[in-house]
Design goal:
single chain; five-stranded antiparallel sheet; Methylamine Dehydrogenase, Chain H; Rossmann fold
Length: 737
């Protein structure tokens, strides 16, 4: 895992944490038809009478081969998370947050009710067929956690509940489901879950014929995304492979083989190089179990014979500098996504036995400077389909076994598609998801032979009328002349005269693109006349691989200046009032927020920074901290002088200076393993001690969650309601700036 979350879906926040025991809340009786009247809130008086906590300063020197630095707030790091002085400070911050936002609790409750009203009380995802069963994940009325069910043979066959996560979550303060996989004979279910929020999952196995949970288990297990990457059953129906973690760094670096009933598990692989993360998954043919090793700049896949699970693995394509690839196998051939000779990747096919002979590779999707082949592709007996990115937008390209390749297109100006990798190799239809800033997630199947489309499901959003909203796709000119895409969404009746409040979100790291998709959590803002925009800044891959490379390592500053350019463009073109601009980002997007706050605090009235990666140099110097060694190729290795100086020049914590900052809301989780809680804690403490204004900094710590906050589908809306409460009360404060 990287410092990567999806904050508010398109914003980038969501993920693995939950408070599972919150009672269900009834939705409003009627949909919201027009902009709701805000509940009055008076934070100004509170801000004037409540004193924020002041963190103690203790001398501490951070050693580095390129220079030592003093860090008087280093004491806030406590790996045990038990030190009384540290906990007292976090408690004081939470008390202050409650004091600042407490008077606006009626508004927060109203926002939560609006958000809850847009979430369907019950919901079932589209079923997938595999090994004789239709598998489906559904949510029962009022329940926070998913229920996994299946139907034998036909969808109208009786439903069998194979896992009820609501029962598993009962009595816990936190619950998150990781991965789940059924053995090929349909008799055993393996799954992983986390009840702490530290992303150290526990393996369980259930006998589906008896309903009994077996004593077989393992701890410190890695749960991957997408979920098919975390567990893999061999074809003997009794052996399952899973990924373990280094107990200190929590890097997913080893693979274990568990045999049903065995007292201990065999470690079949460990990766000593700290740059790599490890995952496992079966190939579509079920001939192999893949052990996939992924670093920032290269990959390696090892194959285990799924019929002989105790046999040694073999390397598919050995790792080499700057070669990134992934593969699948079906019908006696491999399909490979590779950047060999293709900066934006290509998709090739090669017969068994010739995998390493690149002269035998045949292009399915050839290299192109204008088309990026994304990670998602699927193989079936009759076709290959891939997600590709063209002009900054994701599309689906279909390559029939017989006939010409073609694209699936759309009419909206901003949208995102992605192909789904269905487990059934015999399907004759391509299933893909479509969404846009105004179109909820839609699952569609396309018949490859006739090209006829069938809409299987439109995600239900109670109280939402798409006809009341509009999306736009714009471009801003960056400081070096590059055109930066922007996705914008607003109500049709919103004012575009330079008077509206404007929220801009961004991420810009790891090549992770911020796609323009629907997010119901924006609706309370949109219905109050806000304009919401996504800045598709460098560091993502919206415009191809070069877009990513121009926003990493020694080009990282482009990420920040792109975001600033987007802000200036939107204000200049009257998408928002110059004194009513807000920004939001999380994790590596929190780094973005910290950087723009130091560079151009005058542009923003308020900023939300969730689980922010803000102490870049100190963290990257400490290889005991989770994620550090794997990310030298993303940020740089500060043991090298040039990288140290460059990182030190933008690290948010190190560049706080005496100046006026806008109002800031910071969110973290005590058990975060991806961006440790002490990074935002130190950042907030130093900001308070340095800044020259009187605008509040609200530091909100979830003492029972990790990087992703809450994961219950209703519970997580409380976080969103809190974010929007901060924005709306900041917007209403007459004394701001």
């Amino acid at each position: 895992m990287k410092r990567l979350v999806l904050i508010l879906a398109t914003f980038g926040y969501g993920g693995c944490g939950s408070t599972a025991s919150a009672p269900p809340v009834s939705p409003p009786a009627a949909p919201v038809a027009a902009a709701p009247a805000p509940v009055a809130a008076k934070p100004t008086a509170v801000a004037a009478t409540v004193t924020p906590p002041v963190a103690a300063r203790h001398p501490y020197t951070i050693k580095s081969p390129n220079g030592d630095r003093e860090d008087p707030y280093y004491w806030l790091r406590d790996d045990t998370r038990k030190r009384p002085e540290m906990l007292a400070y976090l408690g004081a911050e939470n008390d202050y947050a409650r004091a600042i936002l407490g008077p606006a609790k009626p508004l927060e409750d109203q926002l939560f009710a609006e958000l809850r009203g847009h979430v369907a009380d019950s919901f079932a995802e589209v079923a997938e067929f595999e090994d004789g069963y239709w598998y489906q994940r559904r949510f029962a009325p009022g329940q926070e956690q998913p229920v996994l069910v299946r139907h034998k043979g036909k969808l109208d066959a009786p439903e069998e509940v194979i896992l009820d996560c609501n029962e598993l979550a009962r009595g816990t303060a936190f619950y998150a489901l990781g991965n789940a996989a059924v053995s090929r004979n349909g008799k055993l279910l393996a799954w992983t879950d986390d009840t702490v929020g530290r992303l150290q999952f526990v393996l369980h196995i259930k006998d589906l014929t008896t309903g009994k949970v077996l004593p077989d288990t393992a701890t410190n297990v890695h749960a991957d995304r997408p979920p098919e990457l975390g567990l893999a059953w061999a074809n003997d129906h009794k052996t399952v492979f899973y990924v373990g973690k280094d107990p200190t760094t929590l890097r997913a670096d080893r693979v274990f083989r568990h045999t049903l009933g065995a007292a201990s598990d065999a470690q079949v692989f460990i990766e000593p190089d700290g740059q790599y993360y490890v995952s496992v998954k079966p190939t579509k043919s079920h001939k192999y179990i893949q052990i996939a090793l992924s670093a920032t700049t290269n990959d390696e896949i090892r194959l285990i014979d799924a019929d002989r699970p105790t046999a040694p693995d073999r390397v598919a394509l050995p790792r080499e500098a700057d070669h990134l690839y992934s593969l699948d196998h079906l019908d006696g051939r491999f399909v490979i996504r590779s950047n060999a000779g293709a900066k934006n990747f290509r998709l090739v096919t090669v017969p068994d036995g010739k995998l390493r002979d690149r002269r035998a590779w045949r292009d399915l999707v050839p290299a192109s400077p204008d088309v990026l082949v994304e990670r998602e592709f699927t193989v079936a007996h009759g076709f290959v389909a891939a997600t590709v990115r063209k002009g900054g937008l994701r599309k689906v390209e279909i390559l029939p076994a017989k006939g010409e390749a073609f694209f699936v297109e759309a009419d909206e100006p901003a949208y995102a598609m992605r192909v789904q990798d269905l487990p059934d190799a015999g399907t004759t239809r391509v299933r893909y998801q479509y969404t846009s800033p105004v179109t909820p997630r839609t699952v569609i199947e396309l018949d490859v032979a006739t090209r006829a489309k069938t809409v299987l499901q439109v995600e239900p959003v109670p109280g939402y009328d798409a006809a009341q909203y509009v999306t736009e796709y714009l471009h801003a000119r960056a400081s070096d002349g590059v055109e930066v895409p922007i996705s914008v969404v607003h109500r049709k009746d919103a004012k575009l005269d330079g008077s509206a409040p404007l929220l801009i979100t961004g991420y810009g790291s790891y090549g992770s693109s911020s796609d323009p998709g629907f997010d119901l959590r924006q609706l309370p803002l949109l219905d109050r006349g806000w304009i919401c925009a996504i800045a598709h800044i460098r560091g993502g891959q919206e415009m191809g691989r070069a877009w990513y490379e121009d926003g990493k390592l020694m080009h990282k500053r482009n990420t920040f200046t792109d975001f600033i350019a987007v802000t200036e463009h939107l204000v200049a073109h009257k998408y928002g009032a110059h004194d009513q601009v807000y920004a939001l980002g999380g994790s590596a997007g929190g780094l973005l927020m910290g950087a723009i706050l130091n560079l151009r605090p005058d542009l923003y009235r308020g900023v939300i920074s969730a689980v922010p990666f803000v102490d870049v140099v100190t963290t990257m110097l400490d290889e005991s901290i989770p994620l550090t060694t794997n990310e030298f190729n993303e940020w740089g290795n500060p043991k090298e002088k040039a990288a140290y100086d460059y990182m030190l020049g933008y690290s948010p914590y190190d560049n706080i200076k005496p100046q006026a900052y806008p109002s800031i809301y910071v969110r973290t989780g005590l058990w975060d393993s991806q961006v440790q809680y002490f990074e935002p804690a130190k950042w907030v403490a130093k900001l308070r001690a340095t800044k020259t204004d009187h605008n509040p900094i609200v530091f909100d710590i979830d003492m029972a969650a990790g990087h992703g906050g809450k994961s219950g589908r209703f519970d997580r809306l409380h976080d969103t309601a809190r974010y929007w409460t901060f924005l709306l009360t900041t917007h209403d404060r007459p004394d701001q700036r």
